[in-house]
Amino acid sequence: MAKYLLLKHYQGAPAAVNDVPMDKWTPDEVEAHIKFMNDFATRLEDTGEFIDGQALSPDGVWVRYDGEGRPPVTDGPFAETKDLIAGWMVIDVDSYERAIELAGELSAAPGAGGKPIHEWLELRPFLAAPPTVAE
Amino acid sequence: MDDVELRALVPRALSVLVRRGADFATAEDAVQEALVRALSTWELERPSDPQGWLITAAWRAFLDMARSDTARRAREVRYDTEPPTGVTPSTDDTLHLYFLCAHPDLTSSSAVALTLRAVGGLTTQQIARAYLVPESTMAQRISRAKRTVAQAGLDCLGDARTVMRVLYLVFNEGYSGDVDLAAEAIRLTRQLQALADVPEINGLLALMLLHHARRRSRTGADDRIVPLAEQDRTQWDTDLIAEGIAILHAALARDQLGEYQAQAAIAALHADAPRFEETDWVQIVEWYDELLRFADTPIVRLNRAVAVGEADGAPAGLAALAEVDGDIPRREAVAAYLHEKNGELELAARLYADAARNAPNLAERDHQTRQAARLNQQLRPDR
């Protein structure tokens, strides 16, 4: 088994094919999308491939240490931030091919006009613990 | 005896052990162990005196722990294995336990965890699941909390106010995992109410009951939010509402108003309306004004603006909203609602979209997105 992180971006990913903001969809299209997302996670739980999924608020700041006895420096939020992560899902699957397959299915979530969004998702393999049998 | 009845015996057992001289942390572990033993053995044969059984089992567990601890330190200390007889734990001891777990030196999350374990008798695993954190994290949080309480000593205990805050936090966490935290908070507040005769505790209990009564109607399929105006009021639990209102009236009659009583009064006025249109918004605004005397926060003012909008019309609500300070959560959602009510649909649709983007949780984000989509479809029906 191998763990993968599926990342969804608010911005920074290449434009989706069906790129209409959600509030411009009809209520029924919004409904269909929410249902698809819920069903997707439930299905992965059923197949034993789901680990965790969380959505992130778009608000965020940069923070860094500023030396002994001083409070950390914060900066932002930056409206012009190029890359903004919207959420993640961690999956545990048998193969790279399966991870690609699932990311493809998730990207097909319905959007405006009930058609797939074709949204770009980022797939990142975990650096796992070294195997017991190394050679 | 079910799990809840069993756990109701926990605070007394714990307070007896502490009064017999056991240190708090070990006593708490001992009661947990006795509780686990009770769960496995009582199914076969229920003791005639469950409280006495639990106290005895916990005392024995404490002695075992103290012995192995002593052995480790290579000391010889003799304990009497039989617990002193004829001890009836007093209500003061149990109340003391509540105050201990709401010790002002504890952070909110530690006080909550310790209260659920020591007073509520929940296992670490149950608490961890309820708060969606790993069990080892929750175990660490609880043991640190016990250390803090032990070090801080008993001179500076929490008071009714800190205890109520802890219970309110538990209630607000709602339901996740296999423990219904809202129901647990109500149980612990009932228990507290029986120990201490304070109108605000009654107000808190009434507030919880009145909100709990509406719980089933507040979410629909897929845990979607159902706003107050659209809730199916036939699903409201009329027994809980009647109880909450009776408790509130008795508290209010004593003329020691506080923020929980004021909040409960607002909840009671909602619960009292047979239909949304029959809500007595004028009185609700008056109660918000009372509430401001005790808790003048932007959140209270924001909620008041909604009530003003219903009582005196959208322009008045927007004027009230303009006076709310700061960039607080849900401000855009309230602004969107009031502007829609005021007929400014384009602006409202934009604000709903902003509210969705800045929503503090997924259910609210979905709800605000639906609102934006609804208005946008109304504005552009051709799509």
Number of domains of chain A: 1
Kindly report the average pLDDT value of chain A: 89
Low-confidence stretches of chain A: none
User: Ends of chain A: how far apart?
Assistant: 18 Å
Q: Strand share of the residues of chain B?
A: under 5%
Q: What is the global morphology of chain B?
A: elongated
User: Fraction of residues of chain B in helices?
Assistant: 55-70%
Number of helices of chain A: 2
Strand order of the largest sheet of chain A: 2-5-1-6
Using a beta-carbon cutoff below 8 angstroms, give the protein chain pair with the largest interface and the number of residues from each chain: A-B, 17 and 20 residues
CATH topology of chain A: Alpha-Beta Plaits
Major β-sheet profile of chain B: 2 strands, antiparallel
Instruction: Please report the distance between the alpha carbons of the first and last residues of chain B.
Output: 60 Å
Element-level helix/strand string of chain A:
EHEEEEHE
N-to-C series of helices and strands of chain B: HHHHHHHHHEEHHHHHHHHHHH
Class by SSE composition of chain A: alpha+beta
- Report the biggest beta sheet of chain A as strand number plus sense, adding barrel if it closes: 4 strands, antiparallel
Rounded to an integer in angstroms, the radius of gyration calculated over CA atoms of chain B is 25 Å
